[in-house]
């Protein structure tokens, strides 16, 4: 005679434990830990806010749109994480560098792999309008020793605030890889960046417009340094005095990354050349944390 099976009765009080236990069966222990915690925090959110069915459905529709607008060039999920402060929290707790090392900040959605290799002082902004900007200095270890052969992967927005991946262009635009010389020195020639708005034509923008949040980022240039023997560094340099330094929509500003863009008269430039027009100079030494 078959024994009657007693079904597990899930109630409002027990559902969190039951779901967490179920997801805790993930084969990989770390996946089990992440999924159980996710279930517990999601349930706590729904309980704390007494989430209604209409609100739950609005959130599902919003997430669907985030997925639908995303492709290999449009990263609306990363943008969501950025504007919620999650990206910067994850960056900070994973890159607790020694004092004196250059701090990390968000990668953002606009980095493109495979930028062209450019020489010392080569112009990555060729033909584009803007004030010439030379960013130069050295790449060093914490003890001050220069690091030769370090590659700086550099990218930035144009004077309309647009990155290459937002435009329909065939050639590398405002990005390049610069290698340090024997003395650890690098020199980037570009144009002075301006502050710009994050993409506002999607679900993230629609949400931000319902708040008092500024949707701008302060003027900056992006740098990625992946040097053998050192912690990878993803960071920006921000222009001192720029608008929005106090309200960066993605929480990416750190005091140590704000540098002076000194305004210079026409004359000799740091690469040994000459500028016929007024230009800007930003001097910065990147200091890398050992791996
Ligand atoms: C950026 O600086 O490229 C960026 C970072 C996060 C969100 C949007 C843009
Ligand atoms: Fe940027």
From TrEMBL:
Cofactor(s) it depends on: Fe(3+)
Pfam families for this protein: Dioxygenase_C, Dioxygenase_N
Matching SUPFAM superfamilies: Aromatic compound dioxygenase
GO molecular function: catechol 1,2-dioxygenase activity; ferric iron binding
Record GO biological process: catechol-containing compound metabolic process
Coiled coil: none
Protein keywords: Dioxygenase, Iron, Metal-binding, Oxidoreductase
Domain Intradiol ring-cleavage dioxygenases: 135-163
Family: Belongs to the intradiol ring-cleavage dioxygenase family.
Protein name, UniProt field: Hydroxyquinol 1,2-dioxygenase
Species name: Actinomycetospora succinea
């Amino acid at each position: 005679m078959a024994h009657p099976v007693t079904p597990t009765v899930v109630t409002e009080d027990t559902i969190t434990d039951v779901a967490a236990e179920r997801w805790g069966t993930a084969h990989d222990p770390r996946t089990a830990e992440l999924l159980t915690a996710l279930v517990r925090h999601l349930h706590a959110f729904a309980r704390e806010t007494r989430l209604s069915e209409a609100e739950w459905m609005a959130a599902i529709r919003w997430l669907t749109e985030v997925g639908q607008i995303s492709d290999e060039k449009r990263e609306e999920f990363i943008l969501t994480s950025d504007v919620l402060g999650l990206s910067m929290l994850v960056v900070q707790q994973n890159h607790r560098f020694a004092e004196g090392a250059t701090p990390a900040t968000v990668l953002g959605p606009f980095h493109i792999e495979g930028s062209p290799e450019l020489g010392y002082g080569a112009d990555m902004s060729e033909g584009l309008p803007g004030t010439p900007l030379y960013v130069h200095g050295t790449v060093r270890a914490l003890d001050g020793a220069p690091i030769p052969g370090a590659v700086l992967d550099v990218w930035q927005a144009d004077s309309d605030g647009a990155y290459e991946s937002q435009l329909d262009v065939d050639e590398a635009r405002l990005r390049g890889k610069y290698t340090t010389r024997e003395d650890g020195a690098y020199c980037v020639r570009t144009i002075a960046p301006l502050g710009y708005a994050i993409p506002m034509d999607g679900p993230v923008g629609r949400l931000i417009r319902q708040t008092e949040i500024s949707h701008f980022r302060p003027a900056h240039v992006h740098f990625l340094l992946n040097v053998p023997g050192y912690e990878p560094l993803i960071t920006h340099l921000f222009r001192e005095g720029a608008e929005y330094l106090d309200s960066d929509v993605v929480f990416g500003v750190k005091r140590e990354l704000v540098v002076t863009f000194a305004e210079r008269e026409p004359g000799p430039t740091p690469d040994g050349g000459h500028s016929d027009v007024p230009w800007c100079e930003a001097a910065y030494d990147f200091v890398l944390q050992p791996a």
